[in-house]
Every structure is written in C-alpha cells, then in structure tokens.
Amino acid sequence: MKIYTRTGDNGETALFGGPRVRKDVLRVEAYGTADECNSAIGVVRAAGVDPALDAALAVVQNQLFVVGSDLAAPEESPYIPRVTAEMTAFLEAQIDAMEAELAPLKQFILPGGTAAAAYLHLARTICRRAERVVVSLAAEEAINPEIVPYLNRLSDFLFVAARVANARAGVADVPWQKP
Description:
Keywords: ATP-binding, Cobalamin biosynthesis, Cytoplasm, Nucleotide-binding, Transferase. The chain is mainly alpha-helical.
C-alpha cells in the first residue's frame, strides 16, 4: 500500500465513516491540532525525561490519539474509542502526584529551564489551541462532551509536568520579571 492516495489533492479529506470535508473545517483543524500536540510530546520524550514522567507521557500520547479519532469520527461507531471521564481522572491523579513534589508556585514562570520543560510548555500551548478549536467546533456541531474537559486538564498536566521536569533535573523554573 502506498502512503499517498492523491484523494486529498483537491483540498478535501475523509472523516471516519466516509464523508468528505474540506481540510480547513473546524473538525479537521481540531484533530490536526491534537495531533500536533501529540507530536510535541513526542519531542519531549525524545529530548529525555525521567522514566516515571516518560511513562505518563506515553499514556497521554495514546490518549491524544483517542482524542483525534473521536474528533475524526462524528458518527457513533463501535470501532472508534471515545474520550472518557476516566482519561481526565488519570490526568488529575498525575497532576496531584507531581504537585506533591513541587514547592507552591508564588509567581508566574516563563517557558524554559531544561529542554524537556521548554518542550512541555510548547506542548501545553498547542494543547490550549486545540482546546480553543474544539470549543469553537462544539458551538457548531455535536461532539463528545468529555473532550473539552480532557484538553483543559491536559494543559494543566503539561504545565505541572514542565515544572517537575525542571525540579527532577535540579533546574529552577524561569521566573517572569515584571518590567
């Protein structure tokens, strides 16, 4: 099977189940941005993080694949996994465990510190964009109501993970300096 099909050469793509849509519709933008976030997390993992954080990020990457497939399949299907409240609960448990290692945040921080932390902040901002696109999509079309809370919590997870990556590496967060 060839990787190219030429079916998208006219600016359309197929959603799961067959309907063709323009590549610039919100639904495609939403799952594409979730995929972009997933790729950024792949960069984090390739940059190197401790094994516990790497394991959590591996789960998140698989969950983000579920987000993308959920968004790419507007019709109910027994073949497509859907975002669940349990996925959001996983993120909350991870956040709680990581925050227990950290000193309370007393000021705003800038993305930076270690390379892994900087990449985690990049993934967080991509996640926030995905959330904004999904909110816009939800205003126009029916979507799984579990997706927005999941993305909201994921951005929190990525923020805390960036702080933990710095802390575990013995590197301080970069404080924002008011002008």
